[in-house]
């Protein structure tokens, strides 16, 4: 079951907020997020850098990336094309997208700094993103590829891993009972650990 409201106008957008509220994701859904980092670098502001936070916790998976409602073809983290046939747009690797699922030990800055021959953002030294699922997106200025400005980036995600008392395991599940149990027992929910 899809636990997200995919037809909700608020899900398929990106908002800008340096200190927005955490979003929690259960099940599988396509969604945007909160742009918490926005910077331009390079000669004549050649690059635009964004960090789009998808969830305030680890996600099981970040799958397909959508650009303006169409699945992108990505090679080595660079968007090559979007769409198919006569509707195909060749982005010529002008968009770079790195996925961060929010796992423990995640370090966004060191990961981006470690990419060879890459003009990345000037993130603070302590910018880790530990426990935060996000996308780093870099756009290379090109008036022909972005005639209407920055495109909308959304992603199909598999949400929070939940505990299953039947098997004593914690793993991705779209089982509504397990998702509700997780919310009830979580500190951001009801913080009630008496649920059997």
Q: How would you summarize what this structure contains?
A:
8% of the residues lie in helices and 38% in strands. With 196 residues, the protein is mainly beta. It is globular and about 60 Å long.
Description:
The chain starts with 14 loop residues before the first strand and ends in an 11-residue tail after the last helix. It has helices at residues 108-113, 176-185; strands at residues 15-16, 28-31, 34-41, 47-55, 61-67, 70-75, 78-82, 89-100, 133-140, 153-158, 161-164, 169-172. A ten-stranded mixed beta sheet has the order 1-3-4-9-8-7-6-5-10-2, with no helix packed on it. Strands 11-12 form a two-stranded antiparallel ribbon. Residues 1-8 have low confidence and may be disordered. With 196 residues, the protein is mainly beta. Helix content is 8%, strand content 38%.
Characteristic terms for this protein:
mainly beta; 196 residues; globular; 12 strands; disordered N terminus
Give, in spatial order, the strands making up the sheet with the most strands.
Answer: 1-3-4-9-8-7-6-5-10-2
Total DSSP helices: 2
Shape: globular
Average pLDDT taken over every residue: 91
User: How would you characterize the largest beta sheet?
Assistant: 10 strands, mixed
Order of helices and strands: EEEEEEEEHEEEEH
Measured between the Cα atoms of the first and last residue, the distance is 23 Å
Low-confidence stretches: 1-8
* Number of strand elements: 12
**Radius of gyration, CA atoms, in whole angstroms:** 18 Å
> What percent of residues adopt helix (DSSP H or I)?
under 10%
């Amino acid at each position: 079951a899809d636990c997200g409201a995919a037809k909700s106008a608020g899900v398929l957008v990106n908002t800008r907020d340096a200190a927005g509220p955490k979003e929690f994701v259960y099940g599988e859904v396509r969604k945007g997020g909160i742009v918490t980092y926005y910077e331009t670098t390079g000669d004549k502001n050649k690059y635009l850098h964004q960090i789009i936070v998808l969830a305030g916790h680890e996600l099981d998976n970040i799958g397909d990336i959508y650009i303006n409602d169409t699945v992108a073809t990505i090679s080595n983290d660079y968007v090559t094309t979007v769409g198919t046939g006569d509707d195909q747009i060749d982005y010529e690797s002008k968009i770079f997208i790195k996925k961060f699922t929010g796992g423990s030990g995640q370090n966004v800055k060191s990961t981006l700094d470690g990419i060879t021959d890459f003009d990345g953002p000037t993130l603070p030294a302590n910018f880790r993103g530990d426990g935060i699922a996000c996308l780093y997106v870099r756009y290379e200025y090109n008036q022909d590829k972005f005639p209407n400005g920055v495109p909308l980036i959304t992603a199909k995600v598999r949400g929070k891993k939940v505990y299953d008392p039947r098997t004593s395991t914690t793993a991705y599940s779209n089982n509504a009972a397990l998702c509700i149990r997780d919310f009830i027992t979580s500190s951001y929910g009801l913080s009630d650990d008496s649920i059997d």
